[in-house]
Amino acid sequence: MSDSASIMPEHPPVTDWVNDFDHTDPKWTENPFPIWEELRAASPVVHTGRFLGCYMPTTYEAVKEIAYDTEHFSSRRVIVRDVRPDITARAPPITSDPPEHKPAKQLLLPPFTPDAMKKLEPRVRAICNELIDEFIADGKCDAAARYTKHIPVRAIAHMLGIPEKDGDLFIKWIHGILELGIKDDNALMEAVREMTGYFAAHIEQRKKNPTDDLITTLMKARDKEGNPLADEHVLGSLRLLLIAGIDTTWSAIGSSLWHLARTPADRERLVKEPELMPLAVEELLRAYSPVTMAREVMKETTVSGCPVKPGNMVLLSFPAANRDPSMFPDADKVVIDRKENRHAAFGLGIHRCVGSNLARMEMTVAIEEWLKRIPDFRLDPAGKVTWSEGTVRGPRQLPLLFGKTN
Amino acid sequence: MAGKLKIRVDQDKCQGHARCKSLAPELFDLDEFGNAHEVGDGTVPEGLEDKAYLAQSNCPEIAIEVTEE
After folding, report:
1. Could you tell me if A80 and A54 are in contact, meaning their C-beta atoms sit under 8 angstroms apart?
2. Spatial contact of A160 and A213, defined as CB atoms under 8 Å apart
3. What is the pTM for the complete model shown?
4. Which of A192, A215, A275, A401 has the most CB atoms in a 10 Å sphere around its CB?
5. Quick check: A156 and A242 in contact, CB under 8 A?
6. Residue A295 — φ and ψ, nearest 5°?
7. CA A300 to CA A311: how far, in whole Å?
8. What are the CA-CA distances from residue B28 to residues A183, A267, B31, B33, B39 (Å)?
9. What percent of chain A is modeled with pLDDT above 90?
10. pLDDT of res. A2
11. A110 touches chain B (CB under 8 A)
C-alpha cells in the first residue's frame, strides 16, 4: 500500500444513509436507487461527514438550483474525494467558473455539434461491427470488456488524431483517475502525469507537422486578443476530453445493453420499431444516467430551504435528479417511448456536457448495430454483472448469452 | 379556427442540448456552437404544432416559448 493510501480514511459500511451517506459504499455501487429514494424522502439536501464534509441534493429541483448557481458553488473541484489537495491539473472548461468558463467552452463546442457528429458516424458504425465480428461466433461475450468499452475510446482517438490502438493506455489512466483516485492520491497523480506526457509529445509533433484533427484545432485556436492558447490549456482540455468522453459513454452503452438483456419487451419493440430509437436513447439516459458531478461550496446560502456552508463539497447527482418522481411520473420505470423527458443526464446550465451529441450518436449507433446482428440476448446466469464505483456508474462486467432461450 | 403557433428560443437560457433540433428539425436550427434558434420568424407551419409542443416539453433548460397568435 502506498504512503498516501495508508493515511486515507477508512470507509466503514454505512448504517445511517441520511446522515452518513457514502457514494463509494458497495451497496450504493450495486443498487443506488432505493438509497436515493430514502434520502429524498428525508430532505431535499442531505449531508455526510465523510469526504471532509459533503452535501447531496436529492431532488431534481435542488440539483437544478445548484447547477445554475455559479456564485455560491464552484466547479474548481469536480470529483468528491477523500482529500482536497491544491488544485494543479485544471481541465477547462469543466473546472472553470464564470467569467473564464465561456471562452474556454466556446473553443470546444464547434467540433461537437450534431452535424460534426454525422461525419464521424460511419467510422463509429464500422468500429461497432469490427468489435462484434470478434465475438459473435462464440455465442456469448462480456459486453463491457469486448464491446462497450472500446467504442468511445476508438471514437475519441479518431477525433483527436491519435492511434486507436492506444486505447488501452487511456482506459488505464481513466481507471486511475476516476476510480482508484477517489481514495489513492498516488494512483491519480501517476495517471495524470503519464497522460500529460503522452499528449505533450503529440502537441510537439504537431508543432512541426500540423494535422487535420482535434488536437491541431485546439492548437490553432486563438483567444479574444488573438493569442494562441498556452500549452497547459491545450493539455488540460485534452485531459478533459479523454476523461469525460470514455468512461461515461462506455457506462451509458453498457447500462442500455444490461437493460435490454433483462427486458425482452423493450428489445423486441426496438427491433420492430427502430424509429423509436431517439426517444429510447433519451429514456435510457434518464433512467441510467452515468455521470455524477461535484461542486465546492464557496459562500453560505440555502438550497431548497436547506442551509449549506463553505468548506463542504457537493455531490451533484444528476442520476438521482433523473429518478425524482415529482419531475418524472413512474420515475423508476423505463418507459421506452417516454414523450416528455427533460432529463439532466448531461447536466443543466452552463456546464452542459460538451460531448453530449457525441455520446448520443455513439449510444444510438452502438445499440442499433448490436440489435441488427444480435437481436436476442440475455444475462449469462454463469457470470456476474459488476458496476463501477464512484463518479461514473455503469457495468464493468456484463456477461451476455446470444440467441433465444430455447 | 385556432390561431397560428409561434416559437421562440430564449438565447440566455439555451445551453445547446439540441433536443429541439432532434425532435423538430423543421422548426429549429443550431449555430456554430450548437445553440438553438427558431427557423425564420418562428411561425409554426400547419401540421407541425405537435412537434413544437414536443420540443418544448423536452428542453431541459425550459428555453422554448410556444405562443398562440
Report:
1. yes
2. yes
3. 0.94
4. A215
5. yes
6. -135, 165
7. 10
8. 45, 31, 10, 14, 5
9. 76
10. 41
11. yes
CA distance B45 to B27: 9
Question: What span, in angstroms and rounded, lies between the C-alpha atoms of A290 and A292?
Answer: 7
Contact call for B34 and A339, based on CB within 8 A: no
Q: ipTM of this model?
A: 0.95
In the predicted structure, residue A6 carries a pLDDT above the cut 50 = no
What was the pLDDT predicted at A180?
80
Each residue's pLDDT tens digit in chain B (69 positions)? 467 999 999 999 999 999 999 999 999 999 999 999 999 999 999 999 999 999 999 999 999 999 998
**CA pair distance A314, A54, nearest whole angstrom:** 5
C-alpha span between A156 and B18 (Å, rounded): 20
Nearest to B34 among A339, A349, A357 (CB): A357
CA distance A119 to A270: 25
What's the grid cell of residue A91?
A: 481541465
Q: Which of A292, A293, A280, A294 is nearest to A360 (CA)?
A: A280
Q: Where are the beta strands (DSSP E) in A101-194?
A: 140-142
Whether the CB-CB separation of A249 and A152 falls below 8 Å is answered with yes
A346 touches chain B (CB under 8 A): yes
